[in-house]
Amino acid sequence: MNSLQNKTYILKNKFELTIQEEELDVSNLLDNEIVGQTIYSCVSPGTELAAYQGFPPLRPGMQYPRLMGYCNVGKVIKVGSTSTGVSEGDVILTFTSHQKYFKIKANEVIAVLGRNIDYKLASAVYLFHLGYMATIESGAQPGMKVGVMGTGTLGYGTALLCNQFGFKTHVFSNQVYLQDELKADGISFSAKERIETQSYFNSFDIIINTSNSWEDWFLSMELLRKKGTMVNLGFPGRGLALPEINPLDSRFFYDKQLTLKSAGYVYDGEATVSDVQFSLKRNINYLLGLIAAGRLDPKRLISKEVKWEQLSELYDFLLIRGTRKFTGILNWTENA
Q: Taking all residues of the chain, what is their mean pLDDT, rounded to a whole number?
């Protein structure tokens, strides 16, 4: 095996998604390199659909062209001479983009998957990770009253985790078609425009805000009790005009002595647990364990599965609002 005919998704400009074909040289691997073949890749809708639509980038720099995707489950088909922890035939989770084959360093493998887990479901595990980090950053404890603002993929997954961890979970969303299934799980639900001030304001220990809108930012502050904590998973104001009210207005931030946090960064190295408790790989393996045990169900996030050639169609499907849609899966197997 000297080379492989690779197929990689490249976004050249907004709505201009292409498949780039090129030879991937695998003849002389570095000692610590491995080669994999993708089985499933999962769409990270917040990141990918924003880029697909041409939303402003989060950081300065070249916006296009760019690779798309980072939730990949593949099979190891070749290993370098000193690669450790990974063997040919292993099925692995990596941050590889949507592409047929990949060549990475062995230490870039996030997890080696056992046979006790559905590989398709495992490809979606990272969609729960930011919500998991938000619960850690918030300091939430069982019995605390935790609100989740928004029920996109990130918010919905976060609500499932909060409920799993024993918090008094309450979702605020205008996607009212989700309320019955969430209430069946024991998760309270309120449509944002129907909130009664006396019933909900000043009562939440924690709000996990997954929204970009300024309206939801201010609503989150109203909902929090004194000394409450808001953890932001969204990007307040992204692509929007500046609000008329100061986002740090003293009646919220000072009078209520709120704590505002962001969540997302996680140590991705190989430190021991005695030095770093919550590392990327440990977190992902913990969440994979919840999935394997049936305590966390990614099927509830997967709205559609398509053949690998149909990523554009999958993006267009996910962009249609008003019905229950979260993420989708690309199937890269020959018999898909």
A: 94
Question: For the whole model, what pTM was predicted?
Answer: 0.93
User: What are the φ/ψ torsions at residue 3 (nearest 5 degrees)?
Assistant: -150, 160
Backbone angles phi, psi at 335, to 5 degrees: -100, 20
- For residue 84, with 0-12 CB atoms within 10 Å meaning exposed, 13-18 middle and 19 or more buried, which class applies? exposed
Say which amino acid occupies 157.
Answer: G
* Closest to 45 measured CA to CA, from 191, 210, 163: 210
Domain count, the chain: 2
Prior bond of 65 cis (ω within 30°): yes
Q: Is residue 319 assigned to a domain?
A: yes
What is the Cα–Cα distance from 116 to 293, expressed in whole angstroms?
9
Q: What's the DSSP call for residue 142?
A: T
Enter the tokens of residue 263: 């969540």
Nearest in space to 207 (alpha carbons), one of 216, 215, 199, 198: 216
The span from the CA of 138 to the CA of 261, in Å, is 8
Q: Is-contact 129 287, C-beta < 8 A?
A: yes
Q: Quick one: which of 335, 332, 334 has its CA closest to 119?
A: 332
Q: Which domain holds residue 216?
A: 128-262
Q: Give me the helices (H) in the chain, please.
A: 45-53, 119-122, 126-138, 153-164, 179-184, 197-200, 214-223, 280-292, 311-319
| CA atoms of 138 and 206, how far apart (whole Å) | 7
The domain spanning residue 62 has which CATH number? 3.90.180.10
Query: Per-residue pLDDT tens for 254-290?
Result: 999 999 999 988 999 888 888 898 999 999 999 999 9
* Domain co-membership, 203 together with 225: yes
Tell me: pLDDT of 194 over 70.
no
Can you tell me the distance from the alpha carbon of 180 to that of 24, in angstroms, rounded to the nearest whole number?
A: 48
pLDDT, tens only, 64-84: 999 999 999 999 999 998 888
Q: How far is it, in rounded angstroms, from Cα 332 to Cα 307?
A: 7
Query: Does residue 133 share a domain with residue 119?
Result: no
